[in-house]
Amino acid sequence: MKKITAICASLLLMLGSAVFAADQHGTAALEHANAAVEKGKANNVAELVKHANAALEHTLAAALVLKGQAKEHMEAASNELEEAATQGELKQTEIATQHAVAAVDHIQAGNK
Fold first, then answer.
1. Residuewise pLDDT in 10s, the chain (112 residues)
2. Contact (CB, 8 A) for 74 and 66
């Protein structure tokens, strides 16, 4: 009986850790994506790219532990952030900003 209790407690701890990690990464991704949008609107393309790449790392990490629609939204956000960084590197600030805005929408939906 003690083994079953220990196994159940371990599983709950791992599940709780995964949810906590997803929350942390989702929050960090949203902060960086919002910063990318802000920098894009200020026409600071270098900072936009920096924050888009940082947000991308967090959305990818969150997508690893999420399931269902939340995972789909984080994956979509990752695609948008990758495109934002690419367009930013090409100095297409307006297009990059649009992709960052789309990423923010997906991250918010994935964090619900």
1. 555 665 544 444 444 444 545 678 899 999 999 999 999 999 999 999 999 999 999 999 999 888 999 999 999 999 999 999 999 999 999 999 999 999 999 999 998 8
2. yes
88 by Cβ neighbours in 10 Å (0-12 / 13-18 / 19+) ranks as buried
**Amino acid present at 58:** H
Residue 3 placed within a domain: no
- Considering its fold, how many domains does the chain have in total? 1
The SS3 call for residue 90 is coil
Distance CA 19, CA 91 (A): 37
Domain of residue 55: give its range: 21-110
